[in-house]
Amino acid sequence: MASNLTLLAGPDALRLLRARGLRGDDVDVVPGASGGPKWLVLAGLDRALFGGLFQGRTRPLHLIGSSIGSWRLACLAQKDPVAALHRFEAAYIDQRYPPKPSPALVSETSERILDALLGDDGVEEILRHPWARLHVVTALCKGPLGMEHPRVQLLGLALCAMGNVVSRRSLSLHLRRVIFDTAGDTSPFVGQKDLPSVHLPLTKENLKPALIASGSIPLVLSGVRIPGAQTGVYRDGGVIDYHLDLDFGAGEGLVLYPHFYPYVVPGWFDKALRWRRAKPLNFRRALLISPSPELVARLPGGRIPDRADFERMSDTARIRAWNQVVSESERMGDELQELMTTGRLAEHVQPL
C-alpha cells in the first residue's frame, strides 16, 4: 500500500489503469471539491498532476469545480498552472482577519486572492485555453437565502437543511445550480437529472464574479450578482455540489479526482448525514486520490486544515501550520510521480 496516498478506483477505471497505467490522454474529467483550507493538503499533488500529466495534450479536458475546487481548476486552465498554484497558495495562506470579520471584508480579501491567482493574463488564458474546459458551479438563491441579513439567511439555510434530510431534490425549492463554462455544446454535464441546472458561457465580464460566487459561503461572504446571468444573488456552489456527486458524462476515459477524503459527500447539507454518500454509478470510471491516514497523522494536530483554524489559531500559528501542510503535501506528488514512472500505480489501487 502506498504510504502517502490512498488510491481508489471504480471498476471501469481499475480495468483501464491495470491495462495502461495513469496517462494524461486517458483522462476526460477532473473534478474539484468544495472544502476551504482543506485544499492545502492537495497542493503538492496538484502541482505534480497539473504540471506534468497533461503536457502535450490536444483533446478537451473538462474541469468542473465548486467553491475552492473551481479556483484550483482555474489554475490548471492557465498557461502555467504551477505558477498559478504558487500564486494562489501564497495569497491564500497569507489572508488575515480581525475577530468576527464582516462578510464584506472576507469578500474583499477573497477578491484579492483571486486577482493573485489569475495574475495579469489568467482570464484570457482560461477563456482561450486550447484544451482545458473550465466549469464553475454556483448556486442561484431563492427566497431567504438571497437576502444578506444573517438571520434571514439562517432561516433559508434551516429550510434547506430540513428538506434535504428527506430528499436532495428539495434543494431546488431554494437554490438553482448554475454552471458557467468554456465548453459550450461540448460540455458533458448538460444532462444532469438530479437537480435542475442552467449552463451559461464564461466570458471576460463574468469569469471573476462567477469564481467569487462559487466560493461565497453563506453568512461568511457576501452574495454576488453576476453580469449577464439571471437576476439574483449567487452563492457557494458547494451548498448544492459539495464534493460533486455528478453524472460525469458519456465516455470511456478516466475521471481523475484529487480529493481531501477517500469518500464523496454530495451536498453541503449532507455532511452530517452518514447515509448520504456518492452514487457508485457516477464513479465507475473515477480514480480518487486522497492523502493516506499516515500522511494526515503527520499534519499539525493530526488533521487536515479547515475554516475553524481562523478562530482556533493566531495568524502566526495558522500560517506556520498551513505552510507545514503544504510541505507535507509534496510527499503525495512525489509518490504519485514515482508510481507512474515505475508503472506500479495499479498495484496500489483499491476498489472504490
TrEMBL record:
Q: What is this protein called?
A: PNPLA domain-containing protein
Per UniProt, residues of the PNPLA domain are: 35-241
User: InterPro entries, per this entry?
Assistant: Acyl_Trfase/lysoPLipase (IPR016035), PNPLA_dom (IPR002641)
What does the entry give for GO biological process? lipid metabolic process
Q: Which UniProt keywords apply?
A: Lipid metabolism
Query: What species does this protein belong to?
Result: Myxococcus fulvus
Its lineage reads: Bacteria, Pseudomonadati, Myxococcota, Myxococcia, Myxococcales
